[in-house]
Write a structure and sequence with these properties.
The chain has about 300 residues and is an alpha/beta fold. It is built from 13 helices and eleven strands. Bound molecules: beta-D-ribofuranose and calcium ion. Beta-D-ribofuranose binds next to helix 1, helix 7 and helix 12.
Length: about 300
Amino acid sequence: MTDGTIPVILDVDPGVDDAVALAAALGEPSLSIEAITTLAGNVGVEMTTANTLAILDWLGAPEIPVHRGASRPLIRTPHDATYFHGSDGLGESGFAVSTRALAADRGPAAIVRHAMARPGQITLVCLGPLTNLAIALNVVPWLPELLRSVVVMGGAFERGGNVTPFAEFNVFADPEAAAQVFGAPFPDITVVGLDVTERVAIDRPGWERLRDSRGGAAELVYRMARRSFAERGVEVFALHDPLAVAVAARPDLVTTTGGRVDVALGEAERGKTTLRVGGETKVALEVNVTAFGEWFQAALGLDDTVTRAAPV
Ligand code: BDR
Ligand code: CA
């Protein structure tokens, strides 16, 4: 862009960490959010869309077009993640219903329209199952050459999954979509999977330091992590989706290995991702945890660093 910012589309399924990622993207000065597309993932698409609008309200965000997207995976039975994100997808935190209007066209159409309007300029950051992008690819197979870059939160390579011993949620939820996306010739695609996202986390002391925050991103982070710490009794809240947003702005935060990503489609290992030799896909296998923590604190305007390196 002429002002030097990177125009991005965020593809989201809020989702507690998607909500934090939205806040981080809004607070990162090098990113300019052109549109947000939603889809079914952590909860159904009606709810992920309503949650997106509610979060934008909470953060006092400017008008950004929000496009409802896919209501279900390409061919699989929907599999949600309410066990982690709560029945409302936002940790049962009770945000006010937004009165913002939805944009007219649907998620995949919006991705195509923006990419065609600004060929080679848009960065697409996918924080949910890859259904919207797969649909867009099926409509416009030359979409890869129209996008500047794609960052995907998904997959698990050198560590196990978080849904099954093999599979990470976003890939497990729609493995056929993931296979199509990872098989497409994007000139610049980075896959940010559990190998790195489970390394960056808010720990309990960090979360407790946010307890007295009122309003804005700090209170949002506190509320999004509350269910994990207060009800589920875990000691870390992994920042999966925020790390993918960080990589869109600061690719130097991760170290990547190039290759081709295969997705298992059989039931036994459904959604397992394997990095093969030969290919241009960049898979993040290392993260600079300290630098990410500093980025996160600045993007969200927090008084303290609240992250720590989670155990390998
Ligand atoms: C991913 O799955 C979802 O539950 C999170 O929002 C994140 O995008 C992590 O596996
Ligand atoms: Ca997500």
